[in-house]
Design goal:
With 280 residues, the protein is mostly helical. The protein contains twelve helices and five strands.
Length: 280
């Protein structure tokens, strides 16, 4: 077992603990997130001294800055939470290096991350839809029995029957998925309101939760901020608020980081497989 594989196993263990927290408490302790970043930085420093290559630190800093910029935007837009951002920054630093071929660990991980993330999110939404079916029955029927959506699905079925070109099918699926999202914007917005917007008990509020409306607690107004509730906001709410608070929850995404890392250890290169199918 190589040194990098030992580090990966340690990171996977931390991600496993983070996954448990994400599912049970909907938040991941900063000690876990910062530990992954710290381990990644220390590993790159050690690697740089071991190989006597200053560029290792340069690439680690570069990947760290780029990932921080992307994560800040994603967090600011409420696309995902702070723990997700810290995990991704740590991973980007750990897997940093010159990308000169498709065997690079970073490319392999990111490819796995997007594919597993898509599958995980889809399954999560399906399960939630089953649980809340009575509440969202109208929206589900509007999506599945819409004439335009039925036409899109028929186009896809006919394409699958008459062509075997993977790249064309993949492109068509992406286009049709985008069109379905556009034509069913109102239905999907209503689904989000019914599945992810909750009247939460103040005791269950966590840092990063997104307020739907501004609230006043102990004569202090807490507004809907891009980054969600701060530590001090949560502390104030739990101490003084007795009324339920309308917040938006998201999909717990830490499990995707974990599954992508485990997949990385299998040494199966999904990017290479995708490129092969697109070319041949």
């Amino acid at each position: 077992m190589t040194f990098i594989e030992i580090i990966l196993i340690i990171v996977i263990f931390l991600m496993f603990i983070g996954t448990i927290f994400d599912f049970i408490k909907r938040e991941v302790p900063d000690t876990i997130s910062y530990s992954i970043i710290g381990i990644s930085i220390l590993f790159k420093i050690f690697e740089s001294f071991y190989y006597k290559d200053i560029y290792i630190i340069f690439y680690a800093a570069l990947f760290g800055i780029i990932s921080f910029s992307i994560c800040y935007y994603l967090t600011y837009k409420n696309i995902w939470g702070g723990a997700d951002s810290k995990f991704l920054i740590g991973i980007c630093i750990l897997l940093s290096g010159p990308i000169n071929n498709i065997e690079h660990l970073f490319l392999n991980y990111i490819t796995s991350f997007f594919i597993i993330g898509f599958i995980f999110s889809t399954l999560y939404l399906i399960i939630k839809s089953i649980i809340y079916y009575k509440k969202i029955k109208k929206e589900i029927q509007s999506i599945f029995f819409n004439k335009i959506n039925i036409a899109f699905i028929l186009i896809l079925i006919l394409t699958l029957i008459f062509t075997q070109k993977i790249e064309f099918i993949f492109l068509l699926i992406m286009i049709l998925a985008l069109l379905i999202l556009i034509f069913n914007k109102n239905n999907f917005e209503n689904l989000e309101k019914k599945i992810f917007i909750k009247n939460a008990n103040p005791k269950t509020i966590t840092e990063g939760d997104i307020l739907i409306n501004s609230i006043t607690v102990n004569n202090k107004t807490i507004n809907n901020k891009p980054m969600g509730l701060s530590y001090n906001d949560v502390k104030l709410i739990k101490k003084h608020s007795k009324n339920k608070i309308l917040i938006r929850w998201g999909i717990p995404f830490i499990p995707v980081f974990l599954m992508s890392f485990i997949f990385l250890l299998t040494k199966i290169n999904l990017l290479k497989i995708i490129i092969y199918f697109l070319i041949f």
